[in-house]
Amino acid sequence: MPALKRESGHTAVSKQIFTIGYEGLDSERLGGVLRDAGVAVLADVRAVANSRKRGFSKGALAASLHDAGLGYAHLRSLGTPKSGRQAARAGDAALMRRIYCEEVLDTAAGQAALDELAAMAEAAPVCLLCFERDPAQCHRRVLAEHLAQRGFSVSDLFG
User: The domain 15-156: what is its CATH number?
Assistant: First the structure.
């Protein structure tokens, strides 16, 4: 559940965002981690929501989350372009970050998608999903940093 904070004599829910990578997880474990953290909606920020890993393609993932009482949203426009994914696979997080910012977040469409994500996260606890277990090697870290600039606190979840 999101932390509560006092503001001007009343209690308000703090703005919280979570991130998780499904590398090394199965879909049941993912659902358990999300429920335990108080997440309501999983925001899939993969450009391509297909996976060779059973249970993590868009349709199967949405269905298993629904069965677990969780929401699912695929925010394809916040995914990493192919060149950024290639840089990440090569272990070049700095290049992935540069490509991601230039080709996604520094565009009008990217800012609109980030606004949509922020609004979603203000309405209910949201967790960003991508593959990489280590958030420092993933574009979801860049997204989380941009959301932190908008007043969100960020927690990385691990299975």
Answer: 3.40.1010
Give the tens place of pLDDT for each residue, 107-155.
999 999 999 999 999 999 999 999 999 999 999 999 999 999 999 999 9
Task: Please give the C-alpha separations between residue 27 and each of 30, 32, 48, 78, in angstroms, as whole numbers.
Answer: 5, 9, 18, 22
Contact 121, 155 (CB under 8 A): no
The CA distance from 25 to 158, in Å, is 9
Q: What is the pTM of this model?
A: 0.89
Of the candidates 152, 122, 127, 114, the residue with the CA atom closest to the CA atom of residue 40: 127
Sign of CA dihedral 81, 26, 51, 40: negative
Helix spans in 41-138 (H) = 58-67, 82-89, 93-100, 108-123
Going by C-alpha positions, the residue among 99, 140, 96, 101 that lies closest to residue 117 is: 140
User: Phi, psi at residue 65, to the nearest 5°?
Assistant: -70, -40
